[in-house]
Structures are given as structure tokens and as C-alpha cells.
Fold this protein.
Amino acid sequence: MNQLILFILSSLFISSLSSKVEPPKKTRGRITVMGIVYCDICSNNSFSKHSYFLPGAEVRLDCKFKASWPRTREQISFSVNRTTNRDGMYRLEIPSVDGVACGQAAIHSSCEASIMRSSSKECNVPGYKSSTKEIAIQVKKQNICIYRLNELNFRPSKTDAGLCGN
């Protein structure tokens, strides 16, 4: 019986040596740039109870990310167009750069969002045309960076005085 146990243990030991040992998978960082576009019904550059989010609006994003990490200095620059979803939000997922941990690197960013076209005939006069102000969130554990840009808006060509009180 002892020989049987010894045989099983040695077989397990030998099979564990022959199995391929894989290094832990490297988690890649994710960078997300996002913002919203809304219709400013009262033309006062604020989201009121009469305002609504604009689906289908086109937004241009111009971004530059510089990452400083002990072994590398990387820079990503790009310009892309995005269309807002049904909630008036545009979003861009940026693939990570090898060797740069988004949540840990010193990332210096500059992003500008500019409105290109409204999807609404009733609300198509540009209000806030571009936004460079952002809120940056870095989550080290999940290696995530989120850049939320300030709101952009369109206005109607005429303000409804009865609705807005002007």
C-alpha cells in the first residue's frame, strides 16, 4: 500500500514538473475619454428641466497622452470623430501602450472635444462648441484611466419665452 501511495505522489510530482508554467498575464491599462452633448432649450448654458440629451450628435476628439514610466516615455496623439449614443454620450476606448500602467504612470493628457453636427433640426445652433476641461480618474488596482470632458451643447435658433421665462 505504501508503494502505491509513493507511486501516485511521484507521478503527480513528475507531471507537475513537466507541465508548462505560464507567467501571470499582464493586465493592460484602459484609457477612456467620454462626455455628453445636450440641447440647451433655454440657451443659458446650463442643463435645465427642459433640456435633453442629444443622441446622434457628432463630436470630434483631439487628444494627446504623454506617459512617464521608469522604462519608457510614450506619447499617443490622435483625432477621431464619435457619435453620441441614445443618452447623448460619446465615448472612446483607447488601447493601452506596452509598458505603461495607466493607473500607475504619470500620465499628462490634453483632450479637446468639439461639436461637429447636431442630429436635431430644432436644436442645431452651437452653444458650448468645445471643451478642454476634464475630470481625470485613475484606478491603480484595475489599471484604468477615465477622462470625462465637460458638457457640450446645441441650442434652438429661437428660445421659447413662455417655456424659459425670458
